[in-house]
Amino acid sequence: MLNDLVKGKIWLVWDGGTAAATITVDADEPLDLNEQPVWPERERRRSALYVRRIVVARTYAGSGLGAALLDWAADVAQRDHGAALIRIDVWTTNLDLHAYYESQRFTRRQGRNPAELAGYPSQALFQREADMPGSDYKKLLAEEERNDQVKFR
């Protein structure tokens, strides 16, 4: 996480002086513990922005903040990276999280052979088109140019 913070990949959502949420956006694809790509070669042919560590403070649960962050990331993918997709890999055993991403218009993708990623827990792969319409996140979030921050409205 420290490496991502130093490289400016972690964004914080502030509600006044309160940290409401965080998201990591990365143009580099995720690697397993052996520095091998998590996504299979056949899936890596289209440009994508990878999101991870999306955390919303419990006091903001149900506000739509998670969905807004995903839509913001899709906009960043297109605008700043020319990427066609946003992708995430999540814990294989967290079925509630799988359902959440599916509710956010992500589709499950076929991963690599699990034996190739031994010890890597996030082998459930999801993606969605970056240009897929979603929430009007700009009603909820205001992006600031300084300090990699997004503010909650």
Describe, in plain words, how this protein is organized in 3D.
This protein is of the alpha+beta class. A hairpin with a 4-residue loop joins strand 7 (141-144) and strand 8 (149-152). Strands 5-6-4-3-2-1-8-7 form an eight-stranded mixed sheet, covered by helices on one side. The chain has one domain (2-152): Aminopeptidase. It is built from three helices and eight strands.
Strand element count: 8
- CATH class division: Alpha Beta
What characterizes the major β-sheet?
A: 8 strands, mixed
The number of helical segments is: 3
Low-confidence stretches: none
Work out the radius of gyration.
15 Å
Strand content: 25-35%
Instruction: Report the principal-axis shape.
Output: globular
CATH architecture: 3-Layer(aba) Sandwich
Give the topology string: H per helix, E per strand.
Answer: HEEEHEHEEEE
- Summarize the amount of helix as a percent range: 10-25%
Structural class: alpha+beta
In CATH terms, the superfamily is Gcn5-related N-acetyltransferase (GNAT)
Give the total of domains. Answer: 1
Give the distance, in angstroms, between the N- and C-terminal Cα atoms: 26 Å
**CATH third-level topology:** Aminopeptidase
Mean pLDDT comes to: 85
List the strand order in the largest sheet.
Answer: 5-6-4-3-2-1-8-7
